[in-house]
Amino acid sequence: MKLAIVGNGKIVTECLFALQDVPEVEVVSIWGRPTSLDRTKSLADDYGIMEVYTDYEKMLTETNADTVYIGIINSMHYDYAKLALIAGKNVIMEKPFTATAEQAKDLASIALDHHLFIFEAMTVFHNETYAKAVETLPWLGRIRMVQCNFSQYSSRYQKYKEGYPAPSFTLEAYGGALMDINVYNINFVVGLFGQPEDVLYVANKGFNGIDVSGTLLLVYKDFVAELVACKDSDSESFLMVQGEEGYFKVPDKANTLGGLDIFIGHGENIAKEEFRPKPVHHRMVQEFKDFIKAIEEDDYDKVNKSLSHSISVCDILERAAESAGLRYGD
């Protein structure tokens, strides 16, 4: 894979670090805004990237990259991905995939019409712990409760309280707790249980209307999933699924899924198992390996399943935002 990188922020830095352990990827180009050219050049120097651009369409025209990784603010995902697909490039898109389900469907249609691949970079599904959770789920019996908590005091929150919101704390950039971190909880739950019957989001809003934290309820036939995400405070993060025959708990955030504690039975007859995945260089390594494999094997079944899931999540994000009165783009 010859890869062009779009962006120069924290997630791009993580991506470039992760790719040091993926020899199948050659990063040939990087794009950043003219106002952050020094930052882009610095990353290019650090990681041996030969081509630096501040004109996105020029990069798409000139680069010999076959795939574009998009790691920019949420509100720019759709437009930049669409341009890349039209230019004949495969796309790997950071979460959230797009702002709306219709945008997601449009990108999927363009990609499939041009026999291109587009993936959402959602590490949840490229983790041994998630695979173990899927394997364990039938042991739990009828599911009665799901709880997820992703709490992480943002390094940008103090500046936000002082009246200087970063893009990740603005409606204009489609930021906030729902889009930035609860999206991981949503992916985990929808991956296990599919689309809910109803969606309700109660948000704690800051001075500019953004959700600095909130609780999302996904209503299924037999249970309710309670998904909490906080950028304004810290606590233990976890994911827990309870059934009539047992439960499991991930004692970690949904984006890293550091292990699974399994409890089957009741009272004194509980069987316990502790599962921990093999150590990895970085959580993003396996997803890139999986994307490369899908492209090399021309596995459109895989990409169709992935896109169907991403569209479902985008639909939930839309419904959640509407229920909380979040008006993105304002």
From TrEMBL:
Start and end of every GFO/IDH/MocA-like oxidoreductase domain? 140-248
Molecular function terms in GO for this entry?
Answer: nucleotide binding
The cross-references to Pfam families, in alphabetical order and at most eight, read: GFO_IDH_MocA, GFO_IDH_MocA_C3
Tell me the ranges covered by the Gfo/Idh/MocA-like oxidoreductase N-terminal domain, including all copies.
2-116
Gene3D superfamilies assigned:
Dihydrodipicolinate Reductase, domain 2 (3.30.360.10), NAD(P)-binding Rossmann-like Domain (3.40.50.720)
- Give the protein name, as stated in the record: Predicted dehydrogenase
Organism name: Lachnospira pectinoschiza
From the broadest rank down, the organism's phylogenetic lineage runs:
Bacteria, Bacillati, Bacillota, Clostridia, Lachnospirales
